[in-house]
Each structure stands twice: as structure tokens, then as C-alpha cells.
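Progress against Task 2.4 (sequence-to-structure conversion) is shown through the following example record, which the project officer requested during the mid-term review.
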Amino acid sequence: MNDLELHPNCVPCVLKRVLFEARLVDPSKEREVVENVLDILSEDFEEGAVSAEIATKIHGKVYEILGTDDPYHELKKRSNMVAEKLLPKAKKLVKKKGFRGAVLASIAGNVLDFGYRDDMNTPEYLEKEFDNIVAEGLGWDDIDEIEELVEKGEDIVFFTDNTGEVVFDTLLMERIKEYDVHLTVVVKGEPILTDATMDDAIKYDIDEIADQLETTGGYAVGVDFNKLDSELLRKLEETDLIIAKGMANWESFSEKDYRPIAFLTRSKCKPVSKTMGVPYNVNVAKLFQ
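C-alpha cells generated for the chain above:
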């Protein structure tokens, strides 16, 4: 996989997102937020800079200015509520299409990610578009190969992404467990953007579905591998399959050579889509071996 460097298109996207965060918490601090983010970008925007690492630094500073560790708290609660409302429909999809249906529902939930696209800035967007997203099918389809690895494997590691999305992930986790594998699920160690944490995992019984429940060990967009538990790092080297949800996990894992790894996401960003080698704005289940 190619390294995902900070792309020029990331700059306006980051600015839009931090403005979104300021307006959620304290609009009077918009200027201070933008000034500090521009300072970070002017210092760190250079060839070879990794977008997930710079984003972690930027959002950490913004959270500090805003005086909160979770500016998306209320949006995340709404995301879970929308996902719960859609869960019966998602279960019907899984009953009809099995593993493929579980993957599609899981990917559809990936749109619960806010602040950078005006058309997807509320959880209710998924409520309105769920059927359409699922009906699209996959713009990149490695599901059969992914399911074969699950079927033949003994050990699977699953990195979650957004709150709300994780509700649909439970359906995929349950399908994975039907193959009698050891399933390790990893959520964020601290609140960051809209990502699921241990609170979400416990709320939706992931501790009961999975054989092992871990966190990323701290605050980071995507995964900071320096913060992962040493046993989990060893597992990444030896596991039969890593499943990673969302764009930020792609940004992080694209720096590493862990194989095999399956990325399940909605390709919501043009630079990310390009580095993944997939079409923009489609459902993606892509396997790297």
C-alpha cells in the first residue's frame, strides 16, 4: 500500500471540520481555532506528512481551545439513536443476504461522520439514505475473498470506526463468529471525532459478541501504533485477517504492511479514494493480501 500523505485537498477539509467543531461547542472561538490550525498546517504541511498524524495534532489543539474532550458528544448520541431505529431493517438485510448483507449494513453506517461534507452533517442523513446506499451494492467488491479468509481463519481482528456505525458492525461481528473464530474487536481509547469508544462497545454488547475487546490505547485519528498494547501488536502480525472500518484506519494502516487486511468503508473523500484505488463515493470492501 502507498503512504497516504497530507494532500492539498485536506487543508480546506480540515478547516471546515474544525469550524464545525467550534460551532458545535463555542462559536465565539472560531477565529482562535482557525488561527491555531493554520499555524499547525504552516509548520507541518510538507512532503511526506501523514494526514492522520497531522489531524490528530490539529484536533487535539482544537479540543484544548474549546475546553472539551468530546465536541461530538450529542451528535454521537443521535447517531446511535438513528442506528438503533434502522437496526431492524439492517437485520432483515442480513437475513436475506447473509455475510454480504452484514458487510453492506456495516459500510452504510460509515456515513455517520460529520463536519467535512455539507450533505452528510447530521445522523438523520443515514436514516433518509440507508436504503439507497445499500441498494447501490459495492463499488469495489472483495466480499467473497474476505468471507473465505474468515471461514478458513482462526483469528480475526476488527477495528471499528464511528459511533452509530458500530451498531451495524455488531451484525457483521455476529456473522464472523458463526465461523467459530477468535474475534478481537478494537475501539478508540479516548473520544476522537465521531469514533466509537469502550462505552459504545459495552452499550451494544460487543464485549459479549467478541472474544476479546481492546482499545487503541489513547487519543489518535485512526491508529497510533505506538500506543497499541504490545500483545495486540503481536496479534496484528499473526492474525488470519484484519478488518478495518473507515477512512482514518486506511490512512493509518496504509503506513504499515500488515496482511491480509480488509478495508470496509464508504469512499467519502477523493484523495483517500485515489490512494485506495477505488471510485469516489461508493461502498468499498477491498482486500489486501
